[in-house]
Amino acid sequence: MDARVRTGGCLCGAVRYSVRGEPVHVRRCHCANCRKESGSAFTVYALWPVDAFEISGELSSFDGRGFCPRCGSRVIDTSDPDGALVEIRLGSLDDELRPDDEIWVKRRESWLPPVEGAVQHYER
Ligand SMILES: [Zn+2]
Ligand SMILES: [Zn+2]
């Protein structure tokens, strides 16, 4: 049986990628860095093994945070210290996934409810 393949990409379509199989972990993060770099109140990302990941198109990056140089969309993160996992920004996926946990919930906006069923971590 072939593993499920999911696809995604940036807003302008210059960067496209695919991931094979199920993610290792799906997480919502409310930390100060995620807030700044996304310009939003939190980020949600899924982790896949690097060898399950393929990408086409050119990426620029800041401190491991990969973005499309044309439209500025954040797409992936390659800052995993072991280089074993790639972080995929959930909003760039063509599919829906549900977070397993939430971290840095002490910084979560007061109007934002927890994800039902997701493990809650005060910090990380
Ligand atoms: Zn783009
Ligand atoms: Zn974060």
Characterise this structure.
The chain has 124 residues and is mainly β. The protein has one domain: glutathione-dependent formaldehyde- activating enzyme (gfa) (Alpha-Beta Complex). The chain contains 1 helix and 11 strands. The strands form 2 sheets. It has an 8-stranded mixed sheet with strand order 6-7-8-9-4-3-10-11. A hairpin with a 6-residue loop joins strand 7 and strand 8. The termini are far apart. The model has no long low-confidence stretch (mean pLDDT 95). Bound molecules: zinc ion (2 copies). One zinc ion (ZN) binds next to loops.
Task: Please render the helix and strand layout as text.
Layout lengths: L4 E5 L6 E5 L4 E5 L2 H7 L4 E7 L3 E4 L3 E3 L2 E3 L6 E4 L7 E5 L11 E3 L15 E2 L4
Parallel strand pairs: 3-10, 10-11
Antiparallel strand pairs: 1-2, 2-5, 3-4, 4-9, 6-7, 7-8, 8-9
One zinc ion binds next to helix 1.
Bound molecules: zinc ion
> Can you tell me the residue ranges where pLDDT is under 50 for at least 5 consecutive residues?
none
Portion in helices: under 10%
The total strand number stands at 11
Question: What's the name of the CATH homologous superfamily?
Answer: glutathione-dependent formaldehyde- activating enzyme (gfa)
Compute the number of helices.
Answer: 1
Q: Roughly how many Å apart are the termini?
A: 36 Å
Radius of gyration computed on alpha carbons? 14 Å
Element-level helix/strand string: EEEHEEEEEEEE
CATH class: Alpha Beta
Supply the number of structural domains.
Answer: 1
CATH topology label = glutathione-dependent formaldehyde- activating enzyme (gfa)
